[in-house]
């Protein structure tokens, strides 16, 4: 049985404020790059690279600033049991070695049936080096989309990248793009995400200090 997401009326607001404080303290700036228009009448499936301990803070703050949806994210069951407090700020579990993965897929699809929700996924299924520029997606993301009404779900790609340049603290750059194509095969999603990732990093390397 999966652990379903909760939004505790104390823990969730505290975690949102904590995310804001931590990023303001440890990063010199946050720049959001992209022209994706958020739809108020569609839910969001946010697909992102998974590269650091900071990921949860980055995504939660981005949701507060840009998407303004009810925040949910998929997390490995063993990690969620270890860090139980994440459950009270939108985390739900997945156990890839158990039959409950089917329940997780159905639950994620149900969340996406409500336009006020956002579901964050790291479709490569694991944390990887920030220097890795090509990602293999797992089939779960395709299975979730197949169980939704595609017209009611906005699929967004997100690339998180950091640079120091001349600053003591790093700057965070968040690149956003909507995936509007009809092909939601996990291989097609990976191919398009990788192309966007490379485009984002090219933009990053050409930035003027």
Summarize the structure.
The chain is an alpha/beta fold and 209 residues long. The protein has helices at 11-26, 55-67, 77-82, 100-111, 140-146, 186-205, and strands at residues 29-33, 43-48, 70-76, 91-94, 117-121, 153-163, 171-179.
Characterization of the model:
With 209 residues, this protein is of the alpha/beta class. Strands 1-7-6-2-5-3-4 form a seven-stranded mixed sheet, sandwiched between helices. The longest helix is centred in the C-terminal third of the chain and has 20 residues. The mean pLDDT is 93.
Short descriptors:
globular; single chain; Glycerol-3-phosphate (1)-acyltransferase; seven-stranded mixed beta sheet; alpha/beta; 209 residues
CATH architecture: 3-Layer(aba) Sandwich
Count the DSSP helices: 6
Instruction: Give the SSE order as H and E letters.
Output: HEEHEHEHEHEEH
Q: Quickly count the domains.
A: 1
Query: Which residues sit in consecutive blocks of at least 5 with pLDDT less than 50?
Result: none
How many runs of DSSP E, i.e. beta strands?
7
Average pLDDT across residues?
93
CATH class: Alpha Beta
What structural class is derived from the secondary structure elements? alpha/beta
What is the gyration radius calculated from CA atoms?
16 Å
Shape: globular
- What is the percent of helical residues? 25-40%
What does the largest sheet look like?
7 strands, mixed
CATH level 3 topology: Glycerol-3-phosphate (1)-acyltransferase
């Amino acid at each position: 049985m999966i652990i379903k997401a909760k939004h505790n009326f104390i823990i969730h607001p505290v975690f949102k404020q904590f995310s804001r404080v931590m990023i303001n303290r440890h990063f010199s700036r946050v720049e959001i790059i992209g022209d994706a228009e958020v739809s108020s009448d569609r839910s969001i499936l946010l697909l992102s690279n998974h590269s650091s301990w900071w990921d949860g803070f980055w995504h939660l703050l981005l949701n507060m600033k840009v998407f303004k949806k009810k925040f949910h994210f998929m997390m490995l069951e063993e990690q969620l049991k270890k860090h139980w407090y994440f459950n009270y700020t939108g985390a739900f579990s997945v156990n890839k070695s158990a039959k409950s993965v089917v329940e997780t897929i159905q639950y994620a699809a149900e969340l996406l049936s409500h336009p006020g929700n956002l579901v964050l996924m790291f479709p490569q299924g694991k944390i990887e080096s920030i220097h890795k520029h090509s990602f293999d997606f797992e089939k779960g993301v395709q299975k979730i989309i197949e169980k939704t009404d595609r017209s009611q779900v906005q699929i967004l790609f997100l690339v998180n990248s950091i640079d120091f340049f001349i600053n003591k603290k790093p700057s965070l750059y968040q690149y956003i793009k909507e995936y509007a194509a009809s092909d939601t095969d996990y291989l097609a999603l990976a191919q398009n995400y990788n192309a966007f990732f490379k485009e984002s990093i090219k933009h990053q390397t050409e930035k003027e200090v």
